[in-house]
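Students often ask why inverse folding is considered easier than folding. One informal answer: many sequences map to the same fold, so there is more than one right answer. In these notes we will look at a single instance of the problem. The structure comes first.
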C-alpha cells in the first residue's frame, strides 16, 4: 500500500554569504575575549562557517578564524589547538558556542597573566555575515529525485540546505532531513545516516560527495 504521507515539493535554493565589517578590531587575547562577549552572533557564525564558501586551492590549516589568528597573530599554539577542535555542530546555538569560546580564552588567561597582554603581530577584525538566498527554480517531489540532483548541486546550495538550515530550525536539523520526515517512517534509516554526518571538518565538495553516497547507498538497498 503506498504511503499517504507527502511533505510537498522540495525547493532547491542557492545562496551567497556576504561579509560585512563590524568595525571592531582587537590586538590582544584579552581584547578578543571581551569582544566575543559583545559581538553579534552573526560574527561568530561567519568566523566559523564563512571560510567554507571562500574559494581556496589548499586545505585550511584551521577551521575557524579565531584559532588561525591566535596561532598566527598572537603566536599562541596552545590556545590555537584548543580553539581548532571546537565543533560548532555540537552546540545548541551560537550563544552556547560563544560561551565555550569565552571559557577557553578565560582558562588560557588564568594559566598565564602574560598572554593576556601580548600584542598581536596583526590585528583581528570581527566580520559579520549576511546570507542572500536565490531560488534555483528546481523542484523535486520524491527523495529519489533529490538523489539525482545531489551531484549537480553547487557547494553553496549544499551549504544553504545542510549547514545554514541548522540555525533556521530551533530544534536543529537541516532541510533535507526536515523534508524527509514528512514521508513518515519510510526514510528513517536515511534520516539516521544524515544525522551522523558532521559537516564541519571538511570542504563543501567533500560534504556533497558524502551526501551523494549516503542517498545512493540507501535508496539502492
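Output (designed amino acids):
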Amino acid at each position: 500500500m503506498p504511503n499517504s504521507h507527502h511533505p510537498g515539493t522540495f525547493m532547491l535554493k542557492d545562496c551567497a554569504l556576504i561579509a560585512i565589517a563590524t568595525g571592531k578590531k582587537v590586538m590582544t587575547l584579552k581584547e578578543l575575549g571581551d569582544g566575543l562577549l559583545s559581538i553579534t552572533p552573526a560574527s561568530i557564525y561567519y568566523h566559523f562557517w564563512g571560510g567554507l564558501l571562500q574559494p581556496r586551492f589548499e586545505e585550511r590549516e584551521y577551521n575557524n578564524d579565531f584559532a588561525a589568528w591566535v596561532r598566527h597573530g598572537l603566536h599562541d599554539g596552545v590556545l590555537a589547538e584548543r580553539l581548532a577542535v571546537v565543533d560548532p555542530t555540537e552546540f545548541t546555538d551560537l550563544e552556547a558556542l560563544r560561551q565555550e569560546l569565552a571559557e577557553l580564552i578565560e582558562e588560557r588567561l588564568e594559566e598565564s597573566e602574560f598572554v593576556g597582554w601580548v600584542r598581536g603581530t596583526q590585528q583581528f577584525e570581527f566580520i559579520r555575515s549576511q546570507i542572500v538566498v536565490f531560488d534555483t527554480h528546481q523542484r523535486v517531489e520524491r527523495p529519489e529525485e533529490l538523489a539525482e540532483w545531489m551531484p549537480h548541486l553547487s557547494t553553496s546550495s549544499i551549504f544553504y540546505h545542510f549547514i545554514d538550515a541548522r540555525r533556521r530550525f530551533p530544534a536543529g536539523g537541516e532541510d533535507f532531513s526536515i523534508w524527509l520526515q514528512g514521508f513518515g517512517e519510510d526514510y528513517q534509516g536515511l534520516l539516521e545516516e544524515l544525522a551522523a554526518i558532521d559537516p564541519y571538518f571538511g570542504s563543501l565538495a567533500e560534504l556533497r560527495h558524502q551526501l551523494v553516497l549516503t542517498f545512493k547507498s540507501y535508496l539502492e538497498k
